[in-house]
Every structure is written in structure tokens, then in C-alpha cells.
Amino acid sequence: MNDTLDNEQTLGEETFDEQALGEKEQPSQKPALRASTAVLAFFLFLLGQVVASIILVIFAVVKFAGEGGDIESAEFVAKIMAGMMPQLTLCGVLGGGVGLSLAALILRRGLRDRSGQGGAWVSGSSAAMFQSIGLGVAAAFFYLSFPLFFMPPPVGAEVGPLAKMATQGGIGQIIWVITAVILAPPIEELLFRGIILGGLNRSWGIVWGVVICNLLFVLTHIAELIHYIPAFAGLTLLSLIATRQRLTYQAIGPAIAAHVGYNGTLAVMLLFS
To answer: Which end of the chain is more exposed for a tag (fewer CB within 10 A), N or C?
Structure first.
């Protein structure tokens, strides 16, 4: 009788251990943010931009060829590089947003984690938002008052594609304003100060996380910055402010607000200058 009870007790303990072990061995279906997921999100963001741009170019080739044009001519290349730049810019930003959305579906766990190792995909307080907008506006005025005022670009100097859109008026300028003020701030901040910063902080610590996150953010704008080196100062200042606001208030909303304040100020000054 005692032997039977002992055997049943031992069997029960073994079953419990197997269940506990099975629970421990179950892989997480929603991986937490870390360096590898930051790289994945950045790759999907760039891939979305490239794919969207390629689709638009293919559409332009088919349309141009259907109208009897020579797609190997210099005229076609010039049309793509100049006439379609606003559309390419808009498609690239929207494509990056699609890539970011795909990354968010894959990396759900950790996106709403408000710590320095999470995505902090929450809005934050109204006070933090207003303060961040003010800091963004101040950063824009710093750029306009010092680097741009004391070191203006030479007359007739080559400018970047976005600067051309912003200064030439028409549909290009409208698309630039929409992209800079409405689309780019949330997409870029959710990626850089959200997924990338949180993932890098978890894997490599906050110092390297902040340094690499800000460096990546600046480098993604290199096509514009190489045409006017002092612009590095304004963009770097914006990046540092957005990072500070995100970490201080443990929310991505203030970072987006600072970005909107900076780009919005530049847009207003351009439109009314």
C-alpha cells in the first residue's frame, strides 16, 4: 500500500517537473527589443523606402515608354531625377512607414515599455509635449540664427534634393511641407528614439545606445547634409533634444513633438520669408 502511494507521488512529481520544464522551454512569440531587433526594424524601414521608390520608377518607365519616349535617353533620366523627385520623396517616406509598421507587427513585445530599454510608444503628458515643441522651435532658431546666418551657403551652390523641393515652390514645396511636418516626425521618432534606441540600450547600454541611435539618425539625412555642412549642427541638436525628451518623460510623444517643432519652424520661416 505504501509502495503504491510512493509510486503515485513520484509519478506526480515527475509530471509536474515535465510541465514546468515545458513551460520554461516555450519560446517567446513576441521578442523583446534588443540590438538585433533594432537592426531588423532599421532594415525593414530602408527596404520599404527602396521598394516604394522602385515601384514608382517602374510606373514612370511604363508611362514614359507608352507615350513613345526613349527610356534610355538623357531626357528620361533628367525627368526622373528632377520632375519626379517630390513623388519619389513622398513614396520613400510612406514606404518607410510601411516597413516600420511591419517591424511593429513583429516586435510587439516591448513597444509600450516606457523604460530606456523599451520602445516607449506612448504619447506622454500634455506638459511634456508642449515643452518639447518649444525646445524644437528653439533648436530651429539656433540653426537659423547661428550656422545658417554666419555661414550661409554660397550663391548658386548645389543643394540637396529636399532643399530644392522646399525652395522651388509648387507641388514640390507642398509635398516637402507635408513630409517634413506631418509624416517624417512620427515615422522617424517611432523608429529611432523608439525601437532602435530601446533595443541598443538593452544590448549595449545607454551610452552606446544613445550615441549609435543619434549617429544613425544623422546619417540617414546625409544626402542633404553633404551639400551644406553647418546643417549637421541643427540636425544633431534636434536629435539630442528628441533623445533627451524621450528618456526623461519615458514616452515617444515628446520626441515627436520636438521634431515637429523643429521642422515646422523651418517650414514656416521658408514659406513666409
So the answer is: N
Does residue 123 register a pLDDT over 70?
yes
CA dihedral of residues 66, 72, 76, 77 (deg, nearest 10):
150
What is the pLDDT at residue 169? Answer: 80
Residue 68 has a pLDDT of 66
Q: Please give the Cα distance from 117 to 192 (Å, whole number).
A: 13
Domain that holds residue 88: 29-271
Instruction: Give the predicted TM-score (pTM) of the model.
Output: 0.85
C-alpha dihedral over 209, 242, 235, 50, to 10 degrees? Answer: 70
Supply the pLDDT for residue 11: 44
Domain assignment present for 18: no
Q: For the chain, what is the domain count? A: 1
Residue 219 lies in a domain: yes
- For residue 264, give Cα distances in angstroms to 77, 271, 273: 32, 10, 14
List phi, psi (to 5°) of 23.
Answer: -65, -35
The SS3 of residue 34 is coil
Q: What is the pLDDT of residues 1-18, one digit of tens each?
A: 445 545 544 444 444 444
The SS3 assignment for 32 reads coil
Helix or strand holding residue 83 (H, E) = none
Max Cα separation, the chain?
101
pLDDT tier, 20 (very low <50, low <70, confident <90, very high otherwise): very low
Dihedral, 63, 69, 75, 76 alpha carbons, nearest 10: 30
Q: At what angle do helices 253-271 and 161-168 cross, to 10 degrees?
A: 50
Report residue 150's pLDDT band, with 50, 70 and 90 as the boundaries.
Answer: confident
Q: What is the C-alpha to C-alpha distance for residues 44 and 100, in angstroms, rounded to an integer? A: 7
**What integer best gives the mean pLDDT of the chain?**
86
Q: Is residue 11 part of a domain?
A: no
